[in-house]
Amino acid sequence: MTLRDEWRRVGAIVWKDLTTERRSKAGLNAVAFMGVLVLLLFGFALGPDTQALQSAAAGAMWLAMLFAGVLAFNRSYQLELDGGALESLLLYPGARWSIYVGKLIANLVFVTLVEIIVVPVAMVLFHVSAPAAWAVALGVTFLGTFGFVTLGTFYAAMSSRSRAREVLLPLLLFPMLIPLLLAAVQATTSLLAGDPMREAGAWIRLLAAFDIIFLVACVFAFEYVIEV
Amino acid sequence: MPNNLPFIVSAYALTWAVLIGYAWHLTSARRDAGRRLESAARESAPAPAPRESAGGSS
Amino acid sequence: MGAIPTTLDDGAPARGGSRELVLGAAAFLLLIAMQVYAISISQADRDMGHLQKIMYVHVPAAWSMMLAFFVVAVASLRYLWKGRENDDLLAAAAAESGALLTGLTVALGMIWAKPTWGIWWTWDPRVTSTAVLFFIYVGYLVLRAFVDDPDRRAQWSAAVGLLGALNVPIVYMSVRWWRTLHQVQSSPSTVDPNFGLGLRINAIAFTVLLIFFIRHRYVTAKMEREAEHLNERAALGGLEIPHA
């Protein structure tokens, strides 16, 4: 199998997953709703004081995205398992990483769609306006989302096929995401304040390094995880 | 010099409680495993075994 | 750490455990001796009084915890490479001892922090990343508890253990940046020359204890697997089933 064929397989998996998602729609709506709900809860917990809301905005937004996104990953395998489709997917010739990359891209699209709803709501609820360096902020959001989805897709391949999958995925995933959460929140907070200390760059580099390291590790390890 | 004795004593007490407790837990788990292995060996090997069985000499 | 599995493999008789009893008793006696010695040779610190004696249990616990997780990482890697069940059981045994020692390290750190800094918890890089490490390996152990199929459990936990080990330096780096960009928590330096010696000899005692724990747990796990194999064989009516 050539690399070109593998990428065609990746494309087919992405297409299949997104089509299923588009046909049901319930998943996207529910997950986005969950994200907005978490934001609202943070707003109530932190009080109506504008100053307090603004300083907590980046943290609340990222936590809302993590709590909502984690619901999406188990779903992406659950649909396969319900129909017994994972076995037939594994029967096709070709490398296993193409399954992982396909799922990863589909989940990335899904979570990005959720963020398109959650981020503007967060900005309204927490009284923050778009930073001057909005393109950099978008880049931070993408890098954070990418790392989150990379690990989420990988751990969901295990948790969705185990007992107690609802509790296992966050328990495995969230401790691993602490560097990513730190970097994303610090970079976002700094950018929202106009990056006065010039510290966003260091955090963005950390995010990029995190993404690359775990993308490589997950692609390598996925083969062992999906086989059994 | 401040009196920190309660902290020191509690640190050492905690350490010993955890270490002894875990050693105790491991030993009892091992005893259970040994018992289970013995009964499994007895059930799986009723066939004539002239030599002494793998680990089932009670 | 290649030496540990080979010493663990030899013998491992189904019954007995008298060797473990000797090793365990020796480890605990060594720990008593080292603690008494270290406490007796160390002087009271100018600033902290006798408080730094907590370090004789805190620091060795932290070192042996790192050693345990190093064993987890190496055994997990070797499992993925060679696919032998023993490596999986070794990784699990080391992870259990490591998680226990990590919890102990964090608790002792809190007991030390309260009289020193006046607070139970500080967002210090080492404290925080140790707590994160604790959660990563609790996740590892929970995964093992929730997966019943042995092959699946072994493959998955090896992957989780490796990714967890990969994350440890990243967590530490990120927390350190996070703290230093805001404020630096200076930890008081120690001046007693006997202090280093006391730490080292206690670390030796903890390491022996760790070997005892891992070996004890490993032999138990092997016996459990052996019992399962025998039960499977009995259920299949004496048919030989190949297993790795």
Tell me the layout of helices and strands:
The complex is a heterotrimer of chains A (228), B (58) and C (244).
Chain A: H1 3-24, H2 26-46, H3 50-82, H4 85-91, H5 97-125, H6 134-159, H7 165-176, H8 178-192, H9 200-227
Helix pairs in contact in A: 1-5, 2-3, 2-5, 3-5, 3-6, 3-8, 5-6, 6-7, 6-8, 6-9, 8-9
Chain B: H1 5-44
Chain C: H1 3-9, H2 18-41, H3 55-82, H4 85-117, H5 125-146, H6 150-180, H7 193-235
Helix pairs in contact in C: 2-7, 3-4, 3-6, 3-7, 4-5, 4-6, 4-7, 5-6
Describe, in plain words, how this protein is organized in 3D:
- The complex is a heterotrimer of chains A (228), B (58) and C (244).
- Chain A has helices at 3-24, 26-46, 50-82, 85-91, 97-125, 134-159, 165-176, 178-192, 200-227.
- The longest helix of chain A has 33 residues, at 50-82.
- In chain A, helix 2 (26-46) crosses helix 5 and helix 6 packs across helix 7.
- Chain A has 9 helices and no strands.
- Chain A is globular.
- Chain B has 58 residues and is mostly helical.
- The longest helix of chain B is centred in the middle third of the chain and has 40 residues, at 5-44.
- Mean pLDDT of chain B is 78; it is low at 52-58.
- Helices cover 77% and strands 0% of the residues of chain C.
- Chain C has helices at 3-9, 18-41, 55-82, 85-117, 125-146, 150-180, 193-235.
- Classes of the chains: A mainly alpha (228), B mainly alpha (58), C mainly alpha (244).
- The interface between B and C is large, with 34 and 46 residues.
